Amino acid sequence: LLTSDDLPASTSQKFGNAATSLAANPDATTVNIEDPGETPKHQPGPPRGSGREEDDELLGNDDSDKTELLAGQKKSSPFWTFEYYQTFFDVDTYQVFDRIKGSLLPIPGKNFVRLYIRSNPDLYGPFWICATLVFAIAISGNLSNFLIHLGEKTYHYVPEFQKVSIAATIIYAYAWLVPLALWGFLMWRNSKVMNIVSYSFLEIVCVYGYSLFIYIPTAILWIIPQKAVRWILVMIALGISGSVLSMTFWPAVREDNRRVALATIVTIVLLHMLLSVGCLAYFFDAPEMDHLPTATATLNQTVAAAKSS
């Protein structure tokens, strides 16, 4: 074995300085030169903090779990304060566009709520989608009525502003009352049959609100004065939005009785069909009341002429 006497003076001085420095600073980094055949007894591992951060990224922390599982119950402010409702509109443009795209292109096997809504349910998108749809239906209905009777000498165009209030009542009642009834029904069935998938009231409102976006371009195209084209458009819109609703709510009822589950989905689709067909029939295919007196007078003249002959 080598001793300090066998080493050169400079080398011995270096070892002495290293020992002194290590004693002064125990946390300093040192290099251990060991025999190649000897197995190291202890290897320092990575800091525990970095591993915990990686686990949080992969598994999610407590905040992400609360957002995932309690999307509709994470509000801490009282409901009568402005801060409580402000959180419902805390959404950016990218999220709104992404959810609109998801409602226009439903993917089989993908849950719309889990894919787009659950991370941050909002009321901003549904509110403005419904408002835009109200004006689209009212304005398109007036323009359609004008174009159909364009060129008739006896026709005098009168704007029907009452269609705006009627459309607003229909659209907003559907977008709020139907989700409320569905949420209550799902809560009642969950008390009887434990379903794996459950939705909050805010998530259901989001689904219904975004599913109505397809009717905005459809209502604009309803200006075309061809009944066949209108019915084709309404069937396409109904197929897209109806598939979003059925694929979203089927996982919430499939664990229930088979008849109850099917009846629930059929009722959801039928109510959606009633909305679309009702708007088309009332705002675009309704008989013109201002022409009824003229038609009645013409009919009376025809009958009188027939009797006199």
Structure, briefly:
The protein has 13 helices and no strands.
Secondary-structure blueprint:
Elements: H1 9-24, H2 48-59, H3 62-69, H4 82-86, H5 93-104, H6 112-117, H7 124-148, H8 162-192, H9 201-211, H10 215-221, H11 227-253, H12 258-283, H13 292-308
Helix pairs in contact: 7-8, 7-9, 7-10, 8-9, 11-12
Oligomer: single chain
Kindly report the average pLDDT value: 76
- Look at the helices and sheets and give the structural class: mainly alpha
Largest beta-sheet details: none
Total strand segments? 0
Radius of gyration: 35 Å
Spans of at least 5 consecutive residues whose pLDDT stays below 50 are 33-75, 287-299
Secondary-structure element string: HHHHHHHHHHHHH
> In percent, how helical is the residue content?
55-70%
Number of helices: 13
> What is the CA-CA span between the terminal residues?
144 Å
- Give the overall silhouette: globular
Strand content: under 5%
Task: Write a structural description.
Its main location: Golgi. Residues 53-62 have a biased composition (Acidic residues). The protein has 309 residues and is mainly alpha-helical. The chain has a domain at 80-284. It has helices spanning 9-24, 48-59, 62-69, 82-86, 93-104, 112-117, 124-148, 162-192, 201-211, 215-221, 227-253, 258-283, 292-308. Helix 7 (124-148) packs parallel to helix 10 (215-221) and helix 8 crosses helix 9 (201-211). The longest helix is centred in the middle third of the chain and has 31 residues, at 162-192. Mean pLDDT is 76; it is low at 33-75 and 287-299.
